[in-house]
Design goal:
Layout (H helix, E strand, L loop, with lengths): L1 H21 L8 E6 L7 H17 L3 E6 L7 H10 L4 E3 L24 H8 L2 H14 L2 E4 L3 E8 L14 E4 L3 H9 L3 E4 L5 H7 L4 E5 H6 L8 E3 L5 E3 L2 E3 L1 H5 L3 H22 L2 H11 L4 E3 L4 H18 L1 H12 L3
Parallel strand pairs: 1-2, 1-3, 6-7, 9-12
Antiparallel strand pairs: 3-11, 4-11, 5-8, 5-9, 5-10
Amino acid sequence: MLRRNALKGAAATLLAAIVSVTALPAAAADVTMNVGFGAPEASLYGRFGQIFQTKVAEMSGGSIEVKLRCCNQISSEDEAFKAMQLGTVDGFFITANNVSPHWPLMDVTVLPYIFQNAEHLDRVLNGEVGQLMKDKLQADTSVHLLAFGPALYRDFYNSVRPINTMADMDGLKIRVPKNEVMIATFEAFGANPVPLAWSETPTALQTGTVDGGDNGTSFIRDMKFFEFEPHLVILEHFVAFAPLFASDAFMNRLNDEQRAMIIAAAAAAGAEFAAQVANETEEVREWLVSEGGMAMTRPDKTDFIAAAQGVQQAFAEERGAEFVELVNAIQAAAE
């Protein structure tokens, strides 16, 4: 009887100890990084962010926590770069063309038809030219470009008519980001570009304030633009990618080891996500037609490419020696 009572007492003591341990709060991370983006959680930004979040947790053993803030919670995409320069935002995914107002050299990647194919793009972004751009951007703006991430084509869409030739673009009111290269490109295509911030774009499309626009293919689905934009047009005129940036203020809060972890995690996340999305573009296009109800056309690109070459030449002449050097380096990487 005494032995049974002793066993019961020991069991109760052990159970109480287990409950006590499991009731303790998890150890807090030493560092928290709030990373924002302007799109929904399920978007490409959110998926990239989740991989980065996991990589950081693994590499740091949980000492660095990444918190993802979707849907313009901590800043809009148009204001985030400036916020990182001020140190009020830790990190943000920003579409490359929205970086250009803050660092004009980014426009080399926005030039229409500047990349010949996926292999050329990879050699640029993940090679010497990409590293040069990272170093130059940090020196000029203090903002850190951690990873370019996967790059996909922007697909064009509109609510007015199918596009089979460049002449069909005539007079269409097209939403474009507030980016000089993109404005000039659509002017060269014969359209009427309307610069709008991303935060204003869904409403402008839905209400018919503009006739159409262009986005990474997955965004057309993620944002449900197919519900009111019936014409999908495969031009492959711009490459869309959304680098992950970090503020200098955040990076300076880290020690050397932690900083190396963040940089390594971003690179690993970018490579992993690029592999995931490599084959998704055609799948999403097919979904937009079969499930989204869009009608898809694939115009002959000859006239579009000729117009784009004029845009390339004009901006190279206007922007000066550094811009020309980067354009030449990108073109050399194609060889």
